[in-house]
């Protein structure tokens, strides 16, 4: 029993050291990525490891059309410029909706939370992953300003099979740079984020086009950082 107890203590120590090392790595990458282009993420890495090809080109904040930034905010996180990483009203509303429908369809995640997941975690849902997501969200909000967060989010989001980032998406779908996207194009691309692989081949989907219309109408309400 004594030896088993020692084994458990050693195992716990190893796990703690691994967690600490992971967060040190995250902090180091965030400091580097505060000023340097981000050309990789956990989602991109997973795509490459499964034999896929990744297309992504970094676009600075000022090289992304205003309409694309407005669309991202009104679609994904309307209070992005005001909160510190978490939209507690949105989380409460999502929880209420899930309880009413009996399905975990509404998430309430902010742009910063989604960025934390895309950069360092996976799509696997668990309390442990949500805990890590919360920690990394706080780190991102502490180390980066809002413009950097929004730019990073738009540069690593998936817009199709192996298509990552708003600039790659703009070139793929419209043969133009992210800076030259118009309101219709921006609204469409951001509306695709809920199911990018499906919408890549189903551009005329009624749900997609309805959301595009809604996002476009709400753009003027976006508060940019």
TrEMBL record:
**Where are the annotated coiled coils located?**
none
Quote the InterPro entries the UniProt record gives: Glyco_trans_51, Lysozyme-like_dom_sf, PBP_transglycosylase, Pep_trsgly
Name of the featured protein: Biosynthetic peptidoglycan transglycosylase
Q: Which Pfam families match?
A: Transgly
Recorded name of the encoding gene: mtgA
User: Might you give the EC number(s) for this enzyme?
Assistant: 2.4.99.28
Q: What domain of life is recorded for the organism?
A: Bacteria
What the protein does comes down to: Peptidoglycan polymerase that catalyzes glycan chain elongation from lipid-linked precursors.
Give me the segments passing through the membrane.
12-33
Q: Which GO terms describe its molecular function?
A: pentosyltransferase activity; peptidoglycan glycosyltransferase activity
- Check the record and name the NCBIfam families matching this protein: mono_pep_trsgly
Q: Give membrane topology per the record.
A: Single-pass membrane protein
Location(s) in or outside the cell? Cell inner membrane
Q: Which UniProt keywords apply?
A: Cell inner membrane, Cell membrane, Cell shape, Cell wall biogenesis/degradation, Glycosyltransferase, Membrane, Peptidoglycan synthesis, Transferase, Transmembrane, Transmembrane helix
Q: What is its main location?
A: membrane
- Which residues belong to any copy of the Glycosyl transferase family domain? 53-220
């Amino acid at each position: 029993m004594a030896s088993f107890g020692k084994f458990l203590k050693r195992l716990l120590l190893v796990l703690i050291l691994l967690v600490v090392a992971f967060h040190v790595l995250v902090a180091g990458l965030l400091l580097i990525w505060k000023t340097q282009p981000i050309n990789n993420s956990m989602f991109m890495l997973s795509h490459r490891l499964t034999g896929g090809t990744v297309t992504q080109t970094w676009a600075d904040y000022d090289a992304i059309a205003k309409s694309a930034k407005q669309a991202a905010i009104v679609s994904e996180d309307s209070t992005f410029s005001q909160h510190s990483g978490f939209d507690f009203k949105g989380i409460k509303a999502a929880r209420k909706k899930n309880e009413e429908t009996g399905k975990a369809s509404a998430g309430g995640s902010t742009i910063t939370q989604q960025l934390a997941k895309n950069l360092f975690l996976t799509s696997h849902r668990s309390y442990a992953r949500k805990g890590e997501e919360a920690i990394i969200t706080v780190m991102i909000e502490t180390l980066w300003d809002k413009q950097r967060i929004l730019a990073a989010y738009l540069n690593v989001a998936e817009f199709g099979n192996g298509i990552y980032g708003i600039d790659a998406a703009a070139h793929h779908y419209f043969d133009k740079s992210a800076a030259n996207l118009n309101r219709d194009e921006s609204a469409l691309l951001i509306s695709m984020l809920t199911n990018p692989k499906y919408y890549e081949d189903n551009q005329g989907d009624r749900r997609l086009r309805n959301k595009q219309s809604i996002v476009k109408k709400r753009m003027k309400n976006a508060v940019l950082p």
